[in-house]
Amino acid sequence: MTNQIGWRKFAAEVNNKNQTIDLARASLYYAQAEYPNIDINEYLNRLDEIAQEIAANLPLERYPLQVIKTINHYLFDRLDFRGNSQDYYNPDNSYLNKVIDRFTGIPITLAVIYLEIAKRVDFPMIGIGMPGHFLIRPDFEDAGIFVDAFNQGEILFEQDCEAKLSQLYQQPVKLEPHFLNPVNNHQILARMLINLKHIYLRHRQLDKVLDIVEGILALFPHNPHEIRDRGLLYYEMARWQEATVDLKAYLKTLPDAEDAPMIQMLLNKICNL
């Protein structure tokens, strides 16, 4: 069982209005559930220090490309942050403290660091939840450029995003406009947690998966699929009463779901125990 204090702090932080959520702090709170001895303020201070160094080197005329190149130079050339393509599914890639310590992560955690640095140098950026690969872009209308933090801050245009999707899926993929829609802090945190959920599921670490599902439900309390998944976890853990509550709630919300017969079969099994 992971440290519950971190999860309680996480739930309290994400209970704020979306625009007031401290993305780095919330990410570190859930990391504290796994690494209870980390000092949250130490990591926030490290982000502050990086931002101060970058701010000192920004040109007087803050054209977007110049700002991005300055951030890129410091993060990827001087500090040597890198995408962890060799060990992509290591859970530490999804814990912000470990990403900062090891200067390596996956697209979304490196993007969170980039977003937090950009915010601190007064150059707001937003997350872009492209399928299979997380990007960021400057937060103004018709920016037209995207940044790939996983690939050393590579600057992309829309046609590059389509090419990257085709490369990821190893077949031609047409770029739909909604693929490049911005995502908010709740959605970013949920995507980070879903990554961890899948990793721990593969390793059958059900206690950790349960905590992570609770974290996702702190972000989206009425998500029927996460309620179902929590019920299935309870079933696996022989916590019959809790499983019954969640699985019934799922069927009530989505009575015609494709997996409804299977869920009903599990409920019948519980009744016959």
TrEMBL record:
<dbReference type="InterPro" id="IPR011990">
    <property type="entry name" value="TPR-like_helical_dom_sf"/>
</dbReference>
<protein>
    <recommendedName>
        <fullName>Protein SirB1 N-terminal domain-containing protein</fullName>
    </recommendedName>
</protein>
<comment type="similarity">
    <text>Belongs to the UPF0162 family.</text>
</comment>
<dbReference type="InterPro" id="IPR032698">
    <property type="entry name" value="SirB1_N"/>
</dbReference>
<feature type="domain" description="Protein SirB1 N-terminal">
    <location>
        <begin position="42"/>
        <end position="193"/>
    </location>
</feature>
<dbReference type="Pfam" id="PF13371">
    <property type="entry name" value="TPR_9"/>
</dbReference>
<dbReference type="Pfam" id="PF13369">
    <property type="entry name" value="Transglut_core2"/>
</dbReference>
